[in-house]
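ok so heres the complex, two chains, lmk if somethin looks off
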Amino acid sequence: MSLAELICPAGTPAALRTAVDAGADAVYCGFQDATNARNFPGLNFTPDELADAVVYAHAKGTKVLLALNTYPPAGKVDLWRQAADTGARLGVDAFIVADMGVADYIAQTHPQVRLHLSVQAAASSPEAIRYYCERFGVKRVVLPRILTIPEIKQVRKDIPCEIETFIFGNHGLMVEGRCSLTNYLTGQSTNMDGVCSPASDVEYKRDADGTMSSQLAGFTIDCFGPDEKAGYPTICKGRYTAPHRPDAYYAFEEPVSLNLSRLLPELIDAGVHAFKIEGRQRSKSYVRGVVTAFRHAVDDIRAGRPADMANLVALTEGQKQTQGAFETKKWR
Amino acid sequence: MAVTDMTKLTLGPIAYHWSAEERRDFYARIADEAPVDEVYLGEVICSKRAPFHEPDLPDTIARLERAGKTVVLSSLAEVMLKRERKATADLAEMDAPEIEINNAAGLYARGDRPHRIGPFMNAYNEATIAWMARQGASHVCLPAELPGEAIAIAAKAARDLGLGVEVQVFGRASLAVSARCYHARAHGRTKDNCQFVCEDDADGMPLCTTDERVILRVNGIQTQSESYVDLLPEMPQLASVGVTHLRLMPQAVDMVAVAQVFRDALDEKSDSRDAEQALKDICGDVAFSNGFYHGQAGYRRIALTTAS
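and the predicted structre for the whole thing:
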């Protein structure tokens, strides 16, 4: 049986301590700049905060993984290198990377620190994963959320590194690291700036008839009736019309969140080493609730007890849930 | 001599599911009439489409080569299924000098044999380009969203390493790829039983906001910009910073005429305002954009201030 480590989001120092206290095996976090894919206002760590966080986490046996998982545009590579140098100096346990230049720099300069391949690298085949393992010494791959469990099981047999999969939280639809939708509408890039549908470009507009439209940079991403709860305008979760679809429909995906709690035993059986909980942008209480519930679930499964998942269902705040690609190929 | 004299025009791979017959006719005209130097062939978006047009590939290659074009074979952007892995490996292992790779699975199979880096490989910066050059890359196509300042630095680094550098100057920009087929989804189907509905949309399927602004185009698993990228006015800048190849993406318009407009502009046979008007006449109602190049929202059209 695999270790089934629980990898938890730490958007702030307070969230990090909360996740550590709730039983995270590892936390992941980033600096307050474009070097990570959650470069949102009010989130992330200064170098001093990260130093304290590493001490706090290590004292409780929790690992700290530093996300350097964006793509530096030419001319700005030094920012990513400095972030790696700082992380290494502060004793982080692994770097989560996507860009080949960043991976190469770390492999050369900080070979003692583990490299994890970010989902942003979009390595979705054994050959792609082996490329990163053999060239950069990657020890773990975060798999894109597009494979079924039997496919994950097969991949596991064909690669020389550990597998981490997302189990809970926001459900990305596009191949990560290959999406410029946000940049197309806002001028801020997911890959280069670490932003996705940035809050600074979001507006909610209520019409006279009570309908509410959620907009991104002036583009209507979705429209809600007076009794509907207005959702955040993420481009790939909006409603649009098409020639065959005169009534607005979710062209990419409904605003559902991923919840694989019921599939945990199968994922462990498939050889997944680590379960990742999405949500560095979420509150401390959310982190406490989700991490605590998954801690119990994983411990129960590993001890051969039936796990109680009811708490996890409650955590999704009434949002629709999906098992995404993990359960069936029909998702595609 | 103009700095653009040595610049090569390329024709990117067809992103859409054009029928075998349409493709044969299209490449016959390109071979005979289009002033492009290099042509990329092969299915980059959906592995299910490949069997329809692969049988024609040898003839198409021969036809284009007889016309003096360099032919490059492009690999799939998204590689997950067995058939996609096999197609990628088969292509990468071909004993051909010019292969464009769009997925790390292709890099793995190609090893250190010479290859080109495709636009889906995320060659965003000089460190990544240097790494790729050490692994055998001879040429790199930069991501469509890279702004001009970064293009200049990336191009210089690539040129110093002896690499060709390519930038898309015409056609819809690829904004995203997915494991899910959005064409099938629009028709209430899944990727496995899609019945190739994407064939109905030769220039992609428009997606419109509820307040009736067309913003995106669906092409199977790919999402593209509604606007056509048009960097006609920026071409002298691109050439002057060391970009060696300018890519035209095939759209469902008269691509021979498009290529002629770009070639004439490169050869300084046309005035830039006339060239812009000619392009508009060829492409009809479509919006043009250059926002990515100028570091702004991609859909925007930024007017170049005349050099003083």
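quick notes: Chain B has one domain: 8-172+228-289. thats all i got rn
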